[in-house]
Design goal:
21% strand
Length: 86
Amino acid sequence: KNGSTFICETCPPGTAQELPGALSCDLCPKGNFQDLHGSSSCKPCSIGSYQDAKGQSACKDCPSGTTSIGLASQSISECGCNEGTI
């Protein structure tokens, strides 16, 4: 608020805010990301990727020949060999 005028700003990528009237944007948690400006929620990393840091605008791909089992993986250690490989 600037005097009697409200100045609203969009949340940058890597953050989100779902509450109207909030004073700050929240960092996306590990395992999630947000690539757009002005978002109300973060997106989970897809299968085959992970994010080990907060506030990111993209997920990291699992190494070649590996994948993650589920959504929102938080560590490269959650990447494992693809089906049919050991």
